[in-house]
Design a protein that fits this description.
This protein folds into two domains: 280 residues, FAD/NAD(P)-binding domain; 150 residues, Elongation Factor Tu (Ef-tu), domain 3. By secondary structure, the chain is an alpha+beta fold. It is globular and about 75 Å long. It has twelve helices and 17 strands.
């Protein structure tokens, strides 16, 4: 049943701008709320919508071999305002899509301002949106105002929001050397959702361990701006901080070599062990347990590849520690990105637990269409998980495996789009080829992911058009 009530979109960043645009293009009336310039932030410099406060890069634009490139292309095919503005103001950047940030934001702002279905209201939405707002998209980003964050936490519970990321690296399963690593839980304990062989274990001898500690102690660290700084908690110290507290600290912490036996050499006890835990339901991604870090990205992969079994590791996400407000989405959001405790509220962008410009905008695209469907009385569906957009929704609403199954700790963390979030795809060995492995097979697999995703997103987009007609 359609309604004349407007959709209220809170936040004029990438996600909010895209959500407002998609809803308005579908024919719904939209009120876009942005607190700047009435209330400024520490990060923004202008009053424009979709201002890029960090990098000007949207990362790889290769839609055949890179997951973020697939996401770019999906969004283009779904009429994304953000991608249209990015393409218009693209700068030379090799295979990446970089944008001229000020003209980019000005183009988005002009499009929003001139759309006949969008009204702009400047000023902070204090606390929860008013009860009379029946259709709301919250796209407030990592700098969500304290009053709104507190209201959401009161509504959903103490563990519904995190105010900083303590992120451990995540690896692609097929890049782990299983001739070195082995599966086993400490003391073979199965846990409530396990089998007793739930972790991958990478052993280090004494020399390998000391070399690893030396590398940690000499690594260059990320330097935080004042507003980015976060407190350290003993339960999630960066590994380099633990190493600074003593060379043996990690051996008595996340790298303790107890309760585990290397089946290839049962008589030799490893000096230290790095454990990996399954990170998604598909089993395609594994995270490094206890390895949150504030090392610069460039050095992380080099140091972590010193660990036996990870010498060829490919990372879906590197580690980090920084301020970021985000929901415990698998717990508090339903499959349509609505707050379970108050379904009139949908969430979009980084606050849902995605990382990156285009990922945030993509969730805005989806929620904008969903909110419009509600307003116009049509069906609400999400893109299939075989698409980049659907894979992101699947991750933040249920594809992630919570660590409660292992240790009772919350582990959901923001994630960039990557092929590890997609359901597996089968590729056929070319005729006449006897040994097919390495880069050629990997590239063929990526092309298969891309082809399937772009085919499925076109079917989804076409179905949406039919429903809205």
């Amino acid at each position: 049943m359609s309604t004349s009530e407007p959709i209220h979109v809170i936040g004029g960043g990438l996600a909010g701008s895209e959500a407002a645009w998609q809803a308005a293009e579908a024919g719904a009336k939209v009120v876009l709320h942005e607190m700047r310039p009435v209330l400024k932030t520490d990060a923004h410099q202008t009053d424009n919508f979709a201002e890029l406060v960090c990098s000007n890069s949207f990362r790889s634009d290769d839609h055949q071999h890179n997951a973020v490139g697939v996401l770019h292309e999906e969004m283009r095919r779904c009429g994304s305002l953000i991608m249209r503005a990015a393409d218009r103001h693209a700068l030379p950047a090799g295979g990446a899509l970089a944008v001229d940030r000020d003209p980019f934001a000005e183009t988005v702002t002009a499009a929003i301002r001139n759309h006949p279905n969008i009204t702009i209201e400047r000023g902070e939405v204090v606390g929860l949106p008013p009860a009379e707002w029946r259709n709301v998209v919250v796209a407030t980003g990592p700098l969500t105002s304290p009053s709104l964050a507190e209201a959401i936490r009161d509504l959903t519970g103490e563990d519904s929001l995190a105010f900083f990321d303590a992120i451990a690296p995540v690896l692609h399963a097929d890049s782990i050397d299983m001739d070195i690593a082995w599966k086993q839980s400490r003391y073979d304990k199965p846990g409530p959702a396990g089998t007793g062989a739930d972790y991958l274990n990478c052993p280090l001898n004494e020399q390998e361990y000391n070399n690893f500690i030396d590398a940690l102690l000499s690594a260059e660290l990320h330097q935080f701006k004042d507003w980015e700084k976060v407190p350290y908690f003993d339960g999630c110290l960066p590994i380099e901080v633990m190493a600074e507290r003593g060379r043996e600290t990690l051996r008595f912490g996340p790298m303790k070599p107890v309760g585990l036996t290397n089946p290839r050499d049962p008589e030799t006890k490893p000096y230290a062990i790095v454990q990996l835990r399954q990170d998604n339901a598909l089993g395609t991604l594994w995270n490094m347990v206890g390895f949150q870090t504030k090392m610069r990205y460039g050095i992380q992969a080099e140091i972590f590849r010193m660990i036996p079994g990870l010498q060829n590791a490919q990372f879906a996400r590197l580690g980090g520690l920084h301020r970021n407000t985000f929901l415990n989405s698998p717990k508090v959001l339903d499959r349509d990105l609505r707050l379970k405790a108050d379904p009139r509220l949908r969430f979009a962008g980084q606050v849902t637990g995605v990382e990156g410009y285009v990922e945030s905008a993509a969730i805005g695209l989806i929620t904008g269409r969903m909110a419009a469907a509600d307003a116009l009385g049509t069906a609400v569906i999400t893109p299939p998980p075989t698409t980049a957009m659907g894979a992101l929704v699947n991750h933040i609403t249920g594809g992630h495996l919570e660590a409660e199954a292992y240790s009772g700790a919350r582990s959901f963390q923001p994630m960039n789009v990557n092929f590890g979030l997609f359901p597996p795809v089968t590729v056929t060995k070319p005729e006449g080829v006897t040994r097919w492995r390495g880069p050629d097979k990997a590239m063929a697999k990526k092309r298969a992911f891309s082809e399937r995703a772009l085919s499925d997103i076109m079917s989804w987009a076409a179905m949406r058009q039919v429903e809205a007609a």
